[in-house]
Amino acid sequence: MIKAEFSIKLENPKQAYEALKPDLENTDRFKVKVFPKKGELYIQIEAKDLTAARAAINSYLRLINTVKEVEEIE
């Protein structure tokens, strides 16, 4: 099992969580948990193999980057 954890500082982590909520999915190859806490958005990923871990990490970091870009526009 491969585990990865990230914490990302955001102006409004609860709003970012709500934006990511529809894309939160657990598959047979990986599980993901996302939650806001104290000015940060926490992401926990557990994957069965390196390929699944990399795909999940890239996916969620890309989504969070999009959320941050939108946050900057507002």
Descriptive report:
It is a single chain. This protein is of the alpha+beta class and 74 residues long. It contains two helices and three strands. A three-stranded antiparallel sheet has the order 1-3-2, covered by helices on one side. It is elongated and about 40 Å long. The mean pLDDT is 89.
Describe the structure concisely:
This protein is an alpha+beta fold.
Instruction: Give the uncertain stretches in residue-range form.
Output: none
Helix content: 40-55%
- Shape category: elongated
Helical element count? 2
Q: Would you count the extended β strands for me?
A: 3
Order of strands across the main sheet: 1-3-2
Largest sheet: 3 strands, antiparallel
Task: Give the termini separation.
Answer: 39 Å
Mean of all residue-level pLDDT scores: 89
Radius of gyration: 12 Å
**Fraction in beta strands:** 25-35%
SSE class:
alpha+beta
> What sequence of helices (H) and strands (E) makes up the elements?
EHEEH
Topology:
Elements: E1 2-9, H1 13-20, E2 30-37, E3 40-47, H2 50-73
Antiparallel strand pairs: 1-3, 2-3
Properties at a glance:
single chain, 74 residues, alpha+beta, elongated
